[in-house]
Design goal:
Layout: H1 14-20, E1 30-37, E2 43-45, E3 53-56, H2 57-69, E4 74-80, H3 89-92, H4 97-108, E5 113-118, E6 131-133, E7 136-138, H5 139-156, E8 160-163, H6 170-180, E9 187-194, H7 201-207, H8 227-239, E10 243-247, H9 253-262, E11 267-271, H10 273-284, H11 290-304, E12 308-311, H12 314-322
Parallel strand pairs: 1-3, 1-4, 1-12, 4-5, 5-8, 8-9, 9-10, 10-11, 11-12
Antiparallel strand pairs: 2-3, 6-7
Helix pairs in contact: 2-4, 4-5, 5-6
Length: about 325
C-alpha cells in the first residue's frame, strides 16, 4: 500500500520548512529591559545575568539607540535610585532615575516606544512592593503611590506604564489618575498574572530589590493556581488595562494559552531573569546551543499566544531572526 500522507515532504529543506512555518519571530515582537542607575559612563554587568548591565542614563541611551537600529520597537525601564525610603519617594519624584531616563531616551530615539515599570520595590528601603506597616503590605495606601508613580512616568513621556505590584485595584487607580490629569492616551500594560516565582532571583541582583524580610507570596500569585489567573486577568481587563501580561513565561505557557483564549486584548509575556540565566549558564558549560535554545524558547512563548515578549535576549534574538 502506498502512503498518501507524508508530512516529511515539507521538512526536506530549510526553504520548505520556512514556507510552512506556523509561528514566526520578528524584532518587533521583543521588548528590551534596561536597568538604569545614576552617574555617568556606568556599565556594570549583573553577575547572575551575563550580558545584562546596570546602566547610567547615557549608557541606557546608547543601548536604546542600538536596540532601535536592530529593529526593536520598545524598551521597558527599571530604576536603581541612589537612595531609598519607606514610601518609595524615588519612584514618583519628577527627577527620579526612570523619569530622567525616559526624557533622555525620548530625545535621542523618538521613534522608540518607552514602557515604564510601575512598581515600588526598587525604591523602598524594605524592598517590598508597597507601603508596609507592622510587617504587612497595605493594599489601598499603596494604590495612591502607584498612581502617583504612573502619573510621574507619563508626564516624563512614557508611552506605556506597566504596574507590577499585584495590588488589588492597581489598574483602576492608575487609569483614574492618568485620565483625571490629561493622560488619557497613556496606555497601561498590566502585569495581570504575576506569580511568586523562584525564577526572579537574578532580577533582584540587577534591581537591588530583595525584600529585607519575608517574601512576596502574600500578594503575588501561588504558582499552583491556574483558575485564579483568569480572575486576575478579568479584573485588570474590566479596570481598563490596554495590554495584559503573564509572568514568568516558559513555565507558565499553559496560563499564557488560557489567557490568550479568554481575552481579546494584546498579550505580553515576560521571559524572566531566571529563565534567561539558565540558558546562559548551560551555554557557558557547552551543554546546549545557546542561539537555538533561545529561539526555541521564544518561539514557544509566541506559539502559546504572546503578542510581545519582554526578554533580556531581545537584541540577540533580533539579530538572529533578521539573519
Amino acid at each position: 500500500m502506498s502512503l498518501v500522507h507524508r508530512p516529511r515532504r515539507l521538512r526536506r529543506s530549510e526553504k520548505l520548512r520556512a514556507m510552512v512555518r506556523e509561528t514566526r519571530l520578528a524584532p518587533e515582537d521583543f521588548i528590551y529591559p534596561l536597568f538604569v542607575c545614576g552617574g555617568e559612563k556606568i556599565r556594570k554587568e549583573v553577575s547572575s545575568m551575563p550580558g545584562v548591565f546596570n546602566l547610567s542614563i547615557d549608557e541606557a541611551v546608547r543601548e536604546a539607540e542600538s536596540a532601535a537600529e536592530l529593529g526593536l520597537k520598545a524598551v521597558i525601564l527599571f530604576g536603581l535610585p541612589e537612595s531609598k525610603d519607606e514610601t518609595a519617594t524615588g519612584a514618583y519624584i519628577r527627577d527620579g532615575i526612570v523619569q530622567q531616563a525616559i526624557r533622555a531616551i525620548r530625545r535621542a530615539v523618538p521613534e522608540l516606544l518607552i514602557i515604564a515599570d510601575t512598581c515600588l520595590c526598587e525604591y523602598t528601603s524594605h524592598g517590598h512592593c508597597g507601603v508596609v506597616r507592622e510587617g504587612e503590605v497595605l493594599n489601598d495606601e499603596t494604590l495612591e503611590l502607584l498612581a502617583k508613580t504612573a502619573l510621574s512616568q507619563a508626564a516624563a513621556g512614557a508611552d506605556i506604564v506597566a504596574p507590577s505590584s499585584m495590588m488589588d485595584g492597581q489598574v483602576g487607580a492608575i487609569r483614574d489618575e492618568l485620565d483625571n490629569n490629561g493622560f488619557d492616551q497613556t496606555a497601561i500594560m498590566s502585569y495581570a498574572v504575576k506569580y511568586a516565582s523562584a525564577f526572579y532571583g537574578p532580577f533582584r541582583d540587577a534591581a537591588d530589590s530583595t525584600p529585607s524580610f519575608g517574601d512576596r507570596r502574600a500578594y503575588q500569585m501561588d504558582s499552583a493556581n491556574a483558575r485564579e489567573a483568569i480572575r486576575e486577568a478579568e479584573l485588570d481587563y474590566t479596570e481598563g488595562a490596554d495590554i495584559l501580561m503573564v509572568k514568568p513565561a516558559t513555565v507558565y505557557l499553559d496560563i499564557l494559552k488560557t489567557v490568550r483564549d479568554r481575552f481579546d486584548l494584546p498579550l505580553a509575556a515576560y521571559h524572566v531573569s531566571g529563565e534567561y540565566a539558565m540558558i546562559k549558564a548551560a551555554a557557558a558549560k557547552g551543554w546546549i546551543d545557546e542561539q537555538r535554545v533561545m529561539l526555541e524558547t521564544l518561539t514557544s512563548i509566541k506559539r502559546a499566544g504572546a503578542d510581545m515578549i519582554i526578554t533580556y535576549y531581545a537584541k540577540e534574538a533580533a539579530k538572529a531572526v533578521r539573519a
